[in-house]
Amino acid sequence: MFDEDGSLDPLLRFLLYAVSALAVGNMLWEWLTEDVGQWSAVDLWGLIADHPWSTGPIVAGGLAVLLLPAESCHSCSTSTRMPTRTTRSSLPLAMRSRRTH
Hints:
Layout: H1 10-50, H2 52-79
């Protein structure tokens, strides 16, 4: 069961971690499938159905916050063009001679 230095046998350690991981995974699965579904399907929908006049502006404001910055960024990026390179050199940038004016 224990090695000479007092550590747990590697096979038993693996089995212990495997059983612990399965137990945690099982608890998370039950929590996600039972409780979170209840919260989103019943509790959240009940809040929306009970207060439609306050939920509408909140959803519209959230959509505006998400969509307006993306739209403004999209319009900026399409109007700005990258300059094209007119001359091509086979030498790397470090080996090219620099002109001074």
